[in-house]
Amino acid sequence: MLDEYSASDKVLLALDCIIFGFDKEELKILLIKRDFEPEKGKWSLIGGFLKKEENLDEAADRILNKLTGLKNVYLEQLHSYSKIDRDPVERTISVAYYALINIEEHNEKLIDQYGAKWFSISEAPGLIFDHDIMVKHAISRLRYKTSKEPVGFELLPPKFTMKQLQKLYESILCEKLDKRNFINKINAMDILVKLDEKDMSSSRKGSFLYQFDHDKYKRKKADGFDFKV
Amino acid sequence: MLDEYSASDKVLLALDCIIFGFDKEELKILLIKRDFEPEKGKWSLIGGFLKKEENLDEAADRILNKLTGLKNVYLEQLHSYSKIDRDPVERTISVAYYALINIEEHNEKLIDQYGAKWFSISEAPGLIFDHDIMVKHAISRLRYKTSKEPVGFELLPPKFTMKQLQKLYESILCEKLDKRNFINKINAMDILVKLDEKDMSSSRKGSFLYQFDHDKYKRKKADGFDFKV
DNA sequence: AATTTAAGTGTTAACTTTACACTTCAAATT
DNA sequence: AATTTGAAGTGTAAAGTTAACACTTAAATT
């Protein structure tokens, strides 16, 4: 019982953030080109270090904000990575978070400043350290999470068409979905509001816009309803 | 970009381990009565600190081993907890792991030495720090995991009856299952070996013993098969 | 030989999921 | 004004899965 406080080794605690966005067709992640050592010039996740006065969720918020300018974003802790030589400079444990953002809302200037760029998952470059494995885990968690909880909406603008929603799920799940079955399923859950407004950008007829009804979902959930795609 | 390595604050990295066992009827967790400060005399999870020469998985193995004497145990990282004042002595981040062990195999002497005791989930005492929330998360993860992967067998002896397996799932899922449906489902997956041996302890007729066939499962999984309870 | 007690076994109905193709609408063109 | 164009929008039936349910069998005990 004596490997207690005093005898222990403190470590640097880093955070890395997998930022997901969806640009009409594809799921993307936001990566930065490092302009600092180590691995200067290579692509990586945005990261930072935990500060004394914050917990991990707060640190993740701060790090996400410094790159995107966004606040109140969906962020979830993923996993902690601890391979001894994962960071060549110093022993560092990294806690990975993933974020879901509306890609239309990020701050372009900040992104340029960081040399950051959106990459579709399939075209992303190899990343430094263990960041590739973090991304792999994040995608797998995203698949699970979006099919069990209505968090996919975080990746869309507040008003969206059924087509957009379907494309989003297709790109997360990496499979084609049947249009009628998809719409029937979503409608059966009765958690969207159909607006009187149409998106006219994709067809002459236009397609109706919908909104996710957070309150209705909360009430249904309290009554035992389960979201499922 | 300059909140880099040098400016950062190192922290103590702890690990806490939720150890699950199953004693014929009930899911249990192994807790220790602390004989050291802070919170001496109170119940808590077994824990320890990360050392320089090990990664988190190795540290969790070591900590599990010091209490149970067991090696090669099913261990999975759960979540990292970081509330600023979660540990009153010093800023500490804790990474929680959960373990599934065959309750018959742990080392009684070690357990006595640590003042440790098995508690059924419903009768466990309140725990120190944020350990109660860790246990809650662990149970919820265990439910998910055991219904998607054949890890429940880790909680049973190598040879078990269908009844035992059903009781195990009932106690993890907190619901009664239909005997015929359960057995039909398990048999349909075709991942158990029925032995010529019976357990005679529970009835005159005796009930056949089964073993989980790891290799067969691996082969089926590679062919796209999914375990599901 | 009769009794006891848990083990072992299949079928049907309810529900969920999948497969599938034509009509409607509004703008653009003639 | 009529026709064309292209995506939006819509329902049903078959297949598959899950859930409900009760009697027979085996071996020990009396």
UniProtKB/TrEMBL annotation, chains A, B:
Keywords, sorted A to Z: Hydrolase
Domain called Nudix hydrolase: residue spans: 12-145
GO MF terms, alphabetically ordered: hydrolase activity
Pfam families given in the database record: NUDIX, WHD_NrtR
UniProt KW Hydrolase keyword: yes
Annotated InterPro entries: NUDIX_hydrolase-like_dom_sf, NUDIX_hydrolase_dom, WH-like_DNA-bd_sf, WH_DNA-bd_sf, WHD_NrtR
UniProt keyword Zinc, yes or no: no
The protein's name in its UniProt record: NUDIX hydrolase
Organism name: Christiangramia oceanisediminis
